[in-house]
Amino acid sequence: MVKRTQSEIMLLILSAISAIIISPFVYYRYIDGDVIVAFVDALIILALGIFFVFVYKTRKIATAKMILAIFLVIAIVLAVSIRGQSHLYWLYPAIIAFYYTLPERIAGVICLIAITLIALHISSTLSHINFFTIVMSLLLTTIFSYTIFSNYRKTNEKLALLATIDPLTLSGNRRALNIKLSEILADQQRQASDVSLLLLDLDLFKRVNDQHGHAVGDQVLVEVTQVLRSNTRALDALFRYGGEEFVIVPLKVDLAAALIVAEKLRLLVAQHKYVNDLKITISIGVAQYRVGETAEAWIARADAALYKAKDAGRNKVMSAMVQ
Question: Domain limits of the chain?
Fold first, then answer.
């Protein structure tokens, strides 16, 4: 069963609820003899049904959101043109929908276009004070919506960032690593290329915590992270995999080149001066991605290479074989 994103679910629910809410108006307007508007409402329901099927079948969310926004503007302007001022009140919830579904700037442009079209149509039918009241209330709703949803988006981005950052080392956490690995594997399915992974582990780190305390151990982790980050290429990403284990991925090179990078990092970590004049070394397992393997299998091969480095006396770099 296909798992749908939150955006897909939201658009499906929004289109279904909108169709349900509008449906009674078709009946009542037809009974009242307002056949033209009843027909327009029926077209709107039909369009919402088509939109629902489009989202459900294609899952093209960005396209669907833009189609929905443009459709709402056309429907509301058309309703106001046919039946007058009373129908422009539908624009208020539509403005909220624009900002909920679209980026703030695009939503703002669409709102201004809708307000301008409606203002041009009602300007000759209302007194100056009523016209000014309606236009200003619509503009204020747009401005407030822009401010609210902009702050909402920024807050969500900060929360998402915090959810993927290790608070001690400020490197990516396991969640961020899983996301990155999923992206890499998706790229490999589209077009295979050389990509390698480094699994690093601080040697005898438990001894540091036992003899010097966890505060010193934490400082060592921070300093090691700084060494790794300052000497790793900009396209590479550093993730804290466990207590004193780190993953660097992707290294967009083959195994031989990845081993050179790993050896450089091993030397830099060993040569760095740490808190309390501690001597810190790392062991590294290197694995090049095999076409078709899972992320778990890839890391497992790097982990096996890491254990070989530990068994060889630590402060070593070992590789997993490539088939």
Answer: 6-163, 174-319
